[in-house]
Amino acid sequence: MMRRLALGTALLAGVLGCFTPTQRREEDLVQNARLWNDDFRWGRWDIVGQSMTAEENALFQERRNLVDEDLVIADYEVTAIRFHKGSQTATVDVKLEWYRKSDPSVRHATLQQRWEHRGGRWMMIKQRRVRGERFPLVPEPAPEPGAPPAAESGKE
C-alpha cells in the first residue's frame, strides 16, 4: 500500500513538473476567467472587483450601483479563451442572458474581456460588448457628434 502511494505521489509530481510556466499561466486563466464570470453572474461584486485594476473597479462599481436592484444576470457561458503571443494577455468571450426586473424580457449580449497577467496573477482589464443588446455594466463608446444614435442592430 505504501509503495502504491509513493508511486502515485511520484507520478503526480512528475506530471506537474512537466508544465511550463506558460502552460501554468494559461491553465490559471482558464480557471480564473470561469470563476470570475461565475462571481459576476451571481453578483459577488466585491470578489469581482479584486481581479480588476483599482480604476476599472471604481468605474464598474459606479455602473453597478446604478442598476444593481433592477439587473438580473440569468445565465452566462465562457465561449472562448484566446491567448496572445507570450501568454501574458488573453481575450475571453462570454455570452450573457440578462433582464431587468422592471422589464423581464430576456436579453442577450456577447462580451469580450481583455485579461492581463500582472504581478503574478490574472487581471480582467476591460470589457466591451461585441454583439447583442447593450448591457448596463459594460461602458459603450460615446457617439461621435452628429452621428445617428446607435441602433440595436447587433441583436443575436
Structural overview:
The protein is an alpha+beta fold and 156 residues long. It has one domain: Roll (Nuclear Transport Factor 2, Chain: A), CATH 3.10.450. The protein contains 4 helices and 4 strands. It has helices spanning 2-17, 21-41, 45-49, 54-67, and strands at residues 71-83, 89-100, 103-118, 121-132. A 4-stranded antiparallel β-sheet has the order 1-2-3-4, with helices on one face. The longest helix has 21 residues, at 21-41. It is globular, with a radius of gyration of 20 Å.
The tally of helices reads 4
What is the approximate shape? globular
- Residue-averaged pLDDT, rounded? 86
Contiguous uncertain segments of 5+ residues: 151-156
Major sheet: order of its strands?
A: 1-2-3-4
CATH topology: Nuclear Transport Factor 2, Chain: A
* Secondary-structure element string: HHHHEEEE
Strand content: 25-35%
The radius of gyration over CA amounts to 20 Å
Question: First CA to last CA: what distance?
Answer: 57 Å
The level 1 CATH classification is Alpha Beta
Instruction: Using the 3D structure, state the CATH architecture.
Output: Roll
Please describe the biggest sheet, giving its number of strands, its sense, and whether it closes into a barrel. 4 strands, antiparallel
Q: Estimate percent helicity.
A: 25-40%
Estimated structural class: alpha+beta
- Note the quaternary state here: single chain
Number of domains: 1
- Tally of DSSP β-strands: 4
